[in-house]
Structure formats: C-alpha cells, structure tokens
C-alpha cells in the first residue's frame, strides 16, 4: 500500500512539474516549506506582542479589541501567526507522509524519522500552549483537558483540576508560565532540526526565493480575507454549546472527550510510540532486495568497499548525500595514504557512491556493478551481433517509478520503442566508464531516465549523474574512450504519468539532435496559475481546518460540584517495641514507644433536596498526615435545589446550607478551604 501511495504522489508531482520546476513545486518542497512556515510563525508571533497582553485578565480583551475593529493591522498579524502555524503543521504532516510512503525510514534513516516524530510532538505542544493564551472558550477546554491529563500522573499532591473549576481559582502564575513556554520552546525546534538533519550533507533548510515570496503573499491574502476566529472569553463554570477549534492542534480535545485520563495517556503515548517505532516495525520488511530474491527480506542493502580497487580519490566521500563515506588510513599496503570506508550507521544504499567510483571499488551487494554492467553489455552485444539495426540503450532508474517492484520492463519498451531497456537503482548509480564501454562497443545512443521529483531517493546524486555524463564533474565522461561519441548521451527527468512528455523529448532528440539534455519546465503564466492553485488548495485546507465549529462534547446537564480540602483530626498512635527489638537499638534510641502522627479520615455528607450521601476520605501522604482532598460531582435536575453540606475536620463539624439554581451547561461550585470555610462560587 505504501508503494502504491508513493506512486500516486509521484503522478501528482509529475502533473505539477509539467508546469512548474521542481524547486517551485510546493508538494515536492514540504520539508523546506514547513521550516519557512515556522519562521513566519515566529516573526508574526513576536510582532503580535505589540497588541497582545500576557495577563490572564487582559489576554482575551486585548484580542477582542482586534476582532472588534474589523480588518486591522493587528488582526492581520494575528491571523498571519495562526495560519502560518497551521500551515507548518500541514507541511510537517505532508512531509512525514511522503517520507513514509517513499520508505525513507529504513536502516540509517531511523534517526531522522525518530527526531522528526519528536519535532511533530514539539510543534504541536507549542501550538497547544498558544491556544491556551487566547483564554477564550476553547482555551477553557484546553486548560481543563491539560489538568485532567496531568492529574492522571501520581506526582501531584493535590488535583490540579481543582484550580480550574471557577474563574477565581485559576492561577495567574500558571498562565504566565504557559506564556513563557510558548515563547521559549521554539528554541528547541532548532535542536530537533539539527538532530533531524545531522546525517545529511549540503542541507538546504528553506525553499527558493520565488516559492518563499509566493507563500508569504498567499498567506498575507488569506490572513486579510479571513480573520482569525475568537470565541467568547473563558468562564470556568460555564460549558459552551459550540466551540471553534483548530483541527491542526486541538484534535486531542476529541480524544479527551472519549477517553478517561489513563486511556488518554495510553492513546497518545501509544500513537507516539507507534509512530517512532516505524523504522523497526516496517524497516526490515521494506529493506532493498534484488528482483530475484522474491518476498524474502534482505538487510544487505548498504554499500561495501573493495579496498584493493580503492585509489583514494575521495570522490565518493565528496558525492555521498548522507555523509556516510569517509577516508581512513590505508590497511592493504598500497601506495595511497587512505582508503574509503562506509559508515554503516549512515549508509542508506542509494548507490550514489557507486557512480562516483571510477575504479569499481564501491559495491551495492544487491545490485553489484561488477556483475550487472557486464550482464547489460552482454545483452547489447548480442543485439549487435544479430545485426538488425542500430542498438540504443535506455537505463531507467527504478526510483523514478517507486522502486524495483513497480518497474515494468515491457511497459517501458512500449514507452521507448527502439530502445533496449535496462533498470538500474538510480541514475546516480550509472558510472561514466560504463557508458563509455557501451558506446565504444557499438551502441548508438544511451538514454538515462532519472527520477524527476524534488524528493528523489538519491537526492544530490541525480544532479551528479548528469554532470558526470556531461563532463562537468569527476569522474567525467571521456568521449575519446567512447569511440568519439560526444553527443550520444541524454539524461531525461521522468515522473509517473509523464510518459508522453518523455516520448516527445526522446523524439526531438532523435529527429533534430536536440542539444538540451535535461527537461526544464519553463516558468510561464500557466506555471504561475498552477502555483497559485496549489497554494490556494493548501491554504483552503489550512484555514478551513482552523475554523471548525464543533459541538461541545461535555454534557448539558447541570452539576453541583463540591471541591474541598480539609485536615482530619491529628492522632499519634503508639507502637510498643519488644525486648528483642529494643536490644538491637542503640541505648539512646530505646524509647518505650514510637509512633508517627497521622490524621483521621474526613467525613463529608452531601444532602440535595433531602437525599443525603456520606463519604469518608483518608488523609493523603505516605504517612497519612496530609489533607483529604476531593472534587465531588452530582448531576442536578433543572431548577432550584436545597443543598446541605456537613464536613468534619480537625476544627470540628463544618456546615453549609443554601439553595442553588441549576441551569443547562452550568456548574454550581461550592468550595471549602480550612482558612476560608465554605464558599458558593
């Protein structure tokens, strides 16, 4: 299924890149666009501080002024901050999906995958804290859900959820802590990005200038046309009927409404661990293997070095996109100081180093050039021997069609009539010396079909392949060794669905000797329209997901909530020691009796309309010397109710009696603290 999805991605890329160059295709630049969106979110967030007040009591009012003033600069900056944050999450999700379907999580790619999962969690959490800072009705749900999530951990002495039952109890300091987390945590993204890219060379973090400008313009237009939503201010004792939620960050609210606290932890932790474990769960299954190996998995996909053939030219070290090849001191006594060494923790088996090695020292065990090149030559020589006409060879990269499993040789023969078709791992695997041998042996033309996608498997290697065959990069193609053929090679890009375009270019080459080697999509008005359409689609997903109106999953029935913290009477129980136990103790510790003070349980009786219920609460703490704490919830019918509460603590019996009016979606909260007594909030 993953390979089928990757093929669909490739077809979509192919359609877009018929009108746009790969560097302008947003679908092919998801990782870089995610970085650029995060940059925009950071700068727009800093600008938003001009209008925003980071106080629990002023935060919503400062944003309400922007919302009430219509389209204003402050409102535009707020919308820009929100949509750029949403767009970052969308691009991250697309990037992760592309890497998953392209199977870029196997072997040495486990670290980028795991660090990427960690960055998704980090970006999501930063966004979660950002929606808290709005302090509107969705922020109330975020706060309540967050406290419930934390209360499932047995590390807090008092339930944090008690602090979010009424507006009076909400701690301003905690709001300020959330504000600083939202401001400081983005710094950790840089650390995560460093871990994510540590195994790559020649990293490009941001898209080209044209695409950056296009995204800023599109975001600016969307932010001006569709202001960011703002719900009424948070009221902790009121349950809103509907909420405006951002699907890109607030989807866990839906989980929280369906799981208990422990279940929510299991659901989130399970999804996180499952995502991070993909390299081990699926990596072996999708390890590269030969065509003739069948379904049996193979772990032998990494490049090996035949030391005796290595001339220490360092070209493989220069070309490796993953910094997996290094030069180490020589071990075989030959007259070079160094030899190539492949780091097994970094090599992904892309084959770029095979194409860069003129001395045939680099081998892919599952497609060894030493065996495969002669096999292809033998087939071409056999065709020449038959004398049926000129022989042309097409070396088609498997990664252009989604891997060797999706390579259909007969279909390619129909696509490239007149060419003898041979599949190779990537275009970068093709060595110039091999092409020289083919042409010197009598082959009329050699066509290399490479993966034209921006996220190709061999990364820089596809570019190196063309430069080598054009004589612009070592090891360069040498026409004199190819029988004087200097115009018999072409490298054409291909994406699935682009068969007709490929045939046109091949025909143009055959008919007029077209000098253009690679296919380059001209930038035109049609390309601009396609780019605007793609960005418009992405922003429609972003803005639409940011304005979802959902029904509050909390019940409509009114509740009576009793939140109390009380200390039971203190008691010290004496424990007598036996004579043997006393004899084992030092003289100064031989007291007649010992005992730790503890508190007796607190008894609470709650009576509603004459119906009484009594509960007994033990003191908290290992020695049972802390307070008894609980939040007691009772569903009420609509209307007035007579409530009586009796609570017995160390000060004696405490009593409260009164009438509460039960309304839909309303909490009647009564609190008790030893220093304040009962209080109807």
UniProtKB/TrEMBL annotation:
Ranges annotated as spanning the membrane: 33-52, 113-135, 142-161, 173-198, 210-230, 262-282, 528-548
Domain of life of the organism encoding this protein: Bacteria
Residue ranges of every copy of the Cytochrome b/b6 N-terminal region profile domain listed in the record: 1-209
Pfam family name, one: Fer4_7
Gene3D superfamilies: 3.30.70.3270, Cytochrome Bc1 Complex, Chain C (1.20.810.10)
Sections of the chain in a coiled coil: none
Entry keyword set: Iron, Iron-sulfur, Membrane, Metal-binding, Transmembrane, Transmembrane helix
Name this protein carries in UniProt: Cytochrome b N-terminal domain-containing protein
Organism of this sequence: Actomonas aquatica
Lineage: Bacteria, Pseudomonadati, Verrucomicrobiota, Opitutia, Opitutales
């Amino acid at each position: 299924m993953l390979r089928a999805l990757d093929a669909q991605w490739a077809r979509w890329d192919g359609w877009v890149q018929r009108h746009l160059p790969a560097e302008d295709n947003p679908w092919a630049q998801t990782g870089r666009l995610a970085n650029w969106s995060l940059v925009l979110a950071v700068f727009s967030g800093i600008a938003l501080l001009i209008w925003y007040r980071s106080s629990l009591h002023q935060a919503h009012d400062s944003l309400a002024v922007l919302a009430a003033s219509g389209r204003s600069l402050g409102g535009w900056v707020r919308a820009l901050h929100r949509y750029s944050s949403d767009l970052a999450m969308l691009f991250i999700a697309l990037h992760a999906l592309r890497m998953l379907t392209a199977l870029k999580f196997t072997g040495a790619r486990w670290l980028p995958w795991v660090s990427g999962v960690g960055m998704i969690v980090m970006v999501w959490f930063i966004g979660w804290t950002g929606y808290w800072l709005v302090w509107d009705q969705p922020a109330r749900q975020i706060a309540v859900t967050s406290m419930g999530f934390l209360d499932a951990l047995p590390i807090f002495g008092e339930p944090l959820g008690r602090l979010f039952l009424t507006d009076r109890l909400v701690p301003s300091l905690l709001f300020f802590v959330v504000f600083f987390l939202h401001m400081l945590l983005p710094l950790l993204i840089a650390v995560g990005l460093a871990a994510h890219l540590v195994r790559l060379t020649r990293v490009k973090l941001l898209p080209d200038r044209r695409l950056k400008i296009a995204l800023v313009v599109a975001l600016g237009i969307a932010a001006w046309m569709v202001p960011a939503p703002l719900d009424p201010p948070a009221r902790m004792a009121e349950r809103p009927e509907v909420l405006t939620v951002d699907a890109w960050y607030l989807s866990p609210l839906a989980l929280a409404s369906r799981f208990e606290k422990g279940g929510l932890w299991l659901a989130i932790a399970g999804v996180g661990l499952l995502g991070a474990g993909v390299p081990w769960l699926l990596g072996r299954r999708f390890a590269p293997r030969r065509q003739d190996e069948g379904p049996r998995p193979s772990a032998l996909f990494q490049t090996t070095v035949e030391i005796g053939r290595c001339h220490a030219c360092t070209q493989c070290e220069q070309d490796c996109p993953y910094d997996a090849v290094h030069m180490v001191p020589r071990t075989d006594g030959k007259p070079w100081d160094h030899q190539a060494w492949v780091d097994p923790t970094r090599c992904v088996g892309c084959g770029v180093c095979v194409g860069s090695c003129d001395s045939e020292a680099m081998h892919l065990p599952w497609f060894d050039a030493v065996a495969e090149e002669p096999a292809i030559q033998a087939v071409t020589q056999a065709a020449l021997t038959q004398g049926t006409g000129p022989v042309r060879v097409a070396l088609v990269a498997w990664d252009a069609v989604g891997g060797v499993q999706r390579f259909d040789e007969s279909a390619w023969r129909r696509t490239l009539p007149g060419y003898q078709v041979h599949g190779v791992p990537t275009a970068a695997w093709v060595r110039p010396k091999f092409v020289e041998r083919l042409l010197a042996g009598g082959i009329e033309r050699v066509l290399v079909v490479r993966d034209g996608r921006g996220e190709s498997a061999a990364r820089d290697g596809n570019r190196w392949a063309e430069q080598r065959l054009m004589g612009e990069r070592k090891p360069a193609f040498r026409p004199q060794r190819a029988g004087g053929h200097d115009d018999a090679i072409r490298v054409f890009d291909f994406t699935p669905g682009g068969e007709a375009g490929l045939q046109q270019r091949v025909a143009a080459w055959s008919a007029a000797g077209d000098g253009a080697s690679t296919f380059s999509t001209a930038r035109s008005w049609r390309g601009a329209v396609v780019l605007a359409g793609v960005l418009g689609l992405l922003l429609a997903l972003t803005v639409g997901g940011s304005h979802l109106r959902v029904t509050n999953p909390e019940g409509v029935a009114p509740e009576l909530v009793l939140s109390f913290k009380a200390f039971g009477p203190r008691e010290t129980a004496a424990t007598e020691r036996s004579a043997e136990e006393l004899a084992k103790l030092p003289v100064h510790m031989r007291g007649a009796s010992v005992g730790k003070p503890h508190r007796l349980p607190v008894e609470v009786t709650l009576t509603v309309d004459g119906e009484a219920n009594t509960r007994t609460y033990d003191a908290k703490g290992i020695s049972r010397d802390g307070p008894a704490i609980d939040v007691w919830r009772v569903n009420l019918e609509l209307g007035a109710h007579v409530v009586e509460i009796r609570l017995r603590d160390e000060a004696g019996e405490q009593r409260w009696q009164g009438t509460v009016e039960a309304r839909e979606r309303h909490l009647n909260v009564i609190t008790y603290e030893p220093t304040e007594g009962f209080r109807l909030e």
